Amino acid sequence: MSIAKNLLKIKSTLPSTVTLVAVSKTKPIPDLMEAYVAGQRIFGENKIQEMAEKWEAMPKDIEWHMIGHVQTNKVKFMAPFVSLIHGVDSLKLLEEINKQAKKNNRIIDCLLQIYIAEEETKFGLDEDELDEILHFVQNDKNEMKNIRIVGLMGMATFTDNQNQIKKEFTHLKSIFDKLQFRKDAINRVSTISMGMSGDYQLAIECGSTMVRIGSSIFGGR
Ligand SMILES: *Cc1c(COP(=O)(O)O)cnc(C)c1O
Questions:
Q1: Fewer CB near the terminus (10 Å): N or C of the chain?
Q2: Domains of the chain listed by start with CATH number
Q3: pLDDT for position 14
């Protein structure tokens, strides 16, 4: 099937409350353009350099999401244009995003990545670290005015065990729900980014509002 057909098929199954991030990492620009022409405007990349090259070459009404692990020293290369950074997992990184956003006279939306998997390889915060970051951001003295925390992101364990994946997604959703009580202090905590090609339907059942789908749209990598 073509990229456009894959895209439209997936879109037709998504509830209207769920945003689709088309994960285009490693794929060439003509592939992304096929999705663009079919109506897709949100693309996810996991390497800053690659995302910046695609941003320069492609139409400017695209929202670029950084979904990969971010190195602090590379934030400056995406600060002028990135729409949402999914994988924020340290205060140091958040402070650098704030600094670079300020330089660019922007406010950059961020998701805090929560560690939900039973794998050593996945990045993310535990609940105490999440708390610490939220307290820091909410303290006006820290002047974190150029970032906005709009939600959480998580990645389930890479496994066929649906029960385990479900348990992990449900855990993330419960942390997200607890955050709602603090909504007065944190702007627009509305996004819960969970679900990829293999598990997005389950993620939606568990409350996802944003799915990151790559191979089911663009083919294997
Ligand atoms: C690559 C990637 C995806 C998309 O994975 P697919 O299985 O190809 O849909 C989603 N989220 C993150 C963080 C990724 O790195």
A1: C
A2: 3-218 (3.20.20.10)
A3: 98
